[in-house]
Design brief:
Keywords: Heme, Iron, Metal-binding, Transport. The chain is 64% helix and 0% strand. It is built from 6 helices and no strands. The mean pLDDT is 93. Bound molecules: protoporphyrin IX containing FE.
């Protein structure tokens, strides 16, 4: 018996949302430079992130990395970056998906973002832990 998907998006929809999100992230004044310092091969990075979401949304076992460790090791990923990341991600979701799917995926992304942001440092000048609800 196969397990039903957690959120019924298609792999094509995941690919489109991820591509849309990174087009925005690359152009963003806060996130753009952080990604530019680490991602040397965008095709490979986006393919990995698609696998991450296939794992989280469709319960396919195709990603076994550790984003929390990778973010901490990067050294310049800050907990206050997550509010920016999530707002760009929500824009990509709204643009590409029907409202109910966008909303369901957004709730999961915010929950994951909350977990991933714990323990990371704040940027200089940031005064509070961002509200990721
Ligand atoms: C809910 C929010 C986020 C999710 C789900 C997420 C997910 C991921 C995943 C799955 C990876 C790949 C880890 C691996 O190599 O296995 C990754 C890498 C990375 N993420 Fe995030 N991330 C999030 C937020 C952020 C934020 C806020 C930043 C800040 C700029 C960021 C910057 C990076 C960087 C720099 C890498 C490493 C890329 C590389 O070395 O190729 N992420 N992220």
């Amino acid at each position: 018996m196969s397990i039903p998907p957690r959120i019924p998006v298609t792999v094509d929809q995941i690919q489109i949302v991820v591509a849309q999100f990174y087009a925005r992230a690359r152009a963003d004044p806060v996130l753009g430079p952080v990604f530019a310092a680490h991602v040397m091969d965008w095709e490979q990075h986006e393919a990995k992130i698609v696998r991450f979401w296939r794992n989280a949304l469709l319960l396919e076992r195709c990603y076994d990395g550790n984003p929390m460790q990778v973010h901490a090791a990067a050294g310049d990923v800050r907990s206050d970056h997550f509010a920016v990341w999530l707002s760009l991600f929500d824009k990509a979701l709204k643009q590409e998906l029907p409202p109910a799917l966008a909303q369901a995926w957004s709730v999961l992304a915010h929950r994951i973002g909350r977990g991933l942001s714990y323990g990371l440092p704040l940027s200089c000048g940031a005064t509070a832990v961002p509200d990721l609800s």
